[in-house]
Amino acid sequence: MTEEIHIVGGGMAGSEAAWQAANRGCRVVIHEMRPERGTFAHKTGNLGEMVCSNSFRSDDHEQNAVGLLHWEMKQAGGLVISTAYKHRLPAGGALAVDRERFAEDITDALRSHPNILISNEEVSTLPDDGQWIVATGPLTSDALGQAIARETGTTALAFFDAIAPIVHAESIDMDRAWLQSRYDKGETEEERRAYINCPMDKDTYEAFIDALLAADVTEFHDGETAGYFDGCLPIEVMAARGRETLRHGPMKPVGLTNPHQPDVKPHAVVQLRRDNALGTLYNIVGFQTKMKYGAQADVFRIIPGLENARFARLGGIHRNTFLNSPTLLDSGMRLRSKPNIRFAGQITGVEGYVESAAMGLLAGRLAAAEAAGHPLPEVPQDSAHGALVHHITGGADARTFQPMNVNFGLFQPLEGLRSGRKGRRDRYKAYTDRAKACWSDWLAAQSPAEAAE
């Protein structure tokens, strides 16, 4: 096979697409402008850098759609998911990773692959020939964004992602905080103690909300509008929707018991999740924010246990652009007006590391098969990958299209199963069983040159 596949962007989607295509005999060039040109959110030049959370969310492949994506990616020899499990941290049933070691390992694997070349320059146009996969994620450069807008004849949609702060563990007061996963979830003692919990009584919670609502926040540039993805709302935006919103969201106190005061139920609880293997850094779960840096330290030090907190990274906000994929992409994720170009990852309108990597996996396999002259069977819609790609390329209403996490609401219903909450466990197990069967069949149907490792 002599045709090169060019991949623009070395995040989750671009890294996975490159791995999949290279393992199928294609020569791959990854065009990643970092570190020659940085972004607001990235801190390194590594491929696969995690800029927001360090979590790949649930790994329950029988009852959770994200966990099912994990399972499917592993069956397909996914680089991102296998590396995530290699650098797993205790997180009470979630797949959290040491983000630095994860990105270093992804980078090493791709740099050492004989079929992959990494080129550190900015791509600012949409080429007319050759096979290209655009996987530039939430921080597509202005020049490339303008080229996409010119080609599609539409202004790129945009919302904003906010980043949660990271705290040095040694600065947390464990005489006030304690280690526990919600509902003691986890198979090991380490998993059951994976989170640091900071309790609040009612007065402290009210003072925290007051400070949050009064804090100075980042201003938007002219012409930008604050359209947020609901799964990644800044805490001050949530608080503005109602004073109890945070207490029923990331600060909910359920499933937790304070060993320092076992008879006192906290009014609210702030959780921190380990961010590295050493356990020296913790990120504040669900605390994405657009507060200015000076205000953040003051507000977060109201939290019991964080009065003397030292921050390895404060929160921030960045623009996230995405396509109206239902109108612009075909079922193979190709741009209808320029079929030599595929899109993958968050720019297609999926949300989350796992979903982005999954779309990269599909794009890489589809591009490699096309280069070999052996197009793949259609991705089965009843798989998690298929449900997600079907949604973004035609299943969603283009008029109201917004970024989407994978969820069982995207799956075709099964007949004869009980609806509602009481039937949910059996229904989800049926969805995952069906998905695993059709995904396994799809992989098995591919020719030996394209089959999973």
Give a quick set of tags describing it.
single chain; 453 residues; alpha+beta; FAD/NAD(P)-binding domain; Elongation Factor Tu (Ef-tu), domain 3; 6-stranded mixed beta sheet; 17% strand; disordered C terminus; MnmG_N; TrmFO; tRNA (uracil(54)-C5)-methyltransferase activity, 5,10-methylenetetrahydrofolate-dependent; EC 2.1.1.74; flavoprotein
Task: Give a verbal description of the structure.
With 453 residues, the protein is α+β, with helices and mostly antiparallel strands. The protein folds into two domains: 4-156 and 323-440, FAD/NAD(P)-binding domain (3-Layer(bba) Sandwich), CATH 3.50.50.60; 163-319, Elongation Factor Tu (Ef-tu), domain 3 (Beta Barrel). The chain has 13 helices and 17 strands. The protein has helices at residues 12-22, 65-75, 79-86, 99-111, 142-152, 189-192, 202-214, 235-240, 293-300, 325-328, 353-372, 384-395, 424-444, and strands spanning 4-8, 27-31, 55-58, 88-89, 94-97, 116-119, 131-134, 157-163, 166-168, 178-179, 195-200, 268-274, 281-284, 311-313, 316-322, 334-335, 338-343. The two termini are 18 Å apart. It comes from Roseivivax sediminis. GO terms for molecular function: flavin adenine dinucleotide binding; tRNA (uracil(54)-C5)-methyltransferase activity, 5,10-methylenetetrahydrofolate-dependent.
Helices and strands in order, then pairings?
Elements: E1 4-8, H1 12-22, E2 27-31, E3 55-58, H2 65-75, H3 79-86, E4 88-89, E5 94-97, H4 99-111, E6 116-119, E7 131-134, H5 142-152, E8 157-163, E9 166-168, E10 178-179, H6 189-192, E11 195-200, H7 202-214, H8 235-240, E12 268-274, E13 281-284, H9 293-300, E14 311-313, E15 316-322, H10 325-328, E16 334-335, E17 338-343, H11 353-372, H12 384-395, H13 424-444
Parallel strand pairs: 1-2, 1-7, 2-6, 7-17
Antiparallel strand pairs: 3-5, 4-5, 8-15, 9-13, 9-14, 10-11, 11-12, 12-13, 16-17
Helix pairs in contact: 1-11, 2-11, 2-13
